[in-house]
Structures are given as C-alpha cells and as structure tokens.
Amino acid sequence: MMRPFNALLGFAAVLYLGSTSVMAEDLPGNGKTIRFVQSESTGGNYVITKIAIEAAKRLGYGSKLSTVNTTLFFPAAAQGDLDLSMDVTLPQLQPSFDKVKDRTEVVGGGSITGAGYNGYMIDKKTADAYHITSLEQLKDPKIAALFGKNGKADLISCDPGWGCGDVVDYQLD
Question: Has domain 4-115 been given CATH number 3.30.460.20?
Fold first, then answer.
C-alpha cells in the first residue's frame, strides 16, 4: 500500500539488487509467495503492480495476482487472505482502512495531494461547442440530452466504495 513515487523508488532498488548475481537459495523470498491484489480498473497502479511482482520474483518470491475491488482488499488483508496492494489511495479510502488498521500496515509514505480528480469530466469538443462550464447547465434538457436519453444525462460514478462516489451522491442529492 505504498504511494506510487515511493513504490517506484523502492522497487527500482529491489530490481537492481535482484539483478545482481546471487544464488537462488540465498534469495530472501525463496519458498515464499506474495499474494498481490490488483483493482478492476487499469489505471496507473496497474504498472506499479507489475513492477512490484517482477521485483518480488527477482528476490525469489513466488507471486499470485488476484483482481479485487480495492475496498475489499482491506478486510481480506486483515484476515490474512491477501498480502499487498499497490492501489490504495489515502485519504480517499481512509474510512475503509481505519476499520482494519489494527491488523494491517501502510508501507511507504506520502499522499495524493488534492485526492485526485473529484469532479465531472466531459470531452473538450462538446464543452467548447455548447459553452458548458458547470454541472448546473445539465438542468437544461437540451444540454442533458447531449449526454443521454430522454432529456436526461447519463452519469458514470466511481467504483463502489470509493470516496469520490460519496461526493457524487452528495452532489446529486
């Protein structure tokens, strides 16, 4: 559950150490398996997960990769069913982490400044053509119809359990 930059630095060092000539039986991971978790989304953390798996292999660890919603990782890790996720964003998932923080550990440091994108994004071509600058404009049936059916706009929210979904629900209410 490292921050991306720290994870890359740490795993770059591990990759370097793992590439030096060492006997297989001398590797720290010999006979051990790390159960990695990857979110259903293939965002930037997908690459970090692949780097972590390769670094672990070079250190002699076996690896098993599961695809699990990040919010489900917390209870699974607390039960000892999964080991490592590179796809945890704090403070956004802090409430889920707080429920199991006595049985899990955040490794690494740092945080996402500004908590990523929390807002509504549309393509620039449509925004420019119709002078769309705010969510309030979706009350206009002609504008809403650009994005959906029956004069209503379709909205895709975050993965279930993510904090940005709570923001969307609040704003819709």
Answer: no
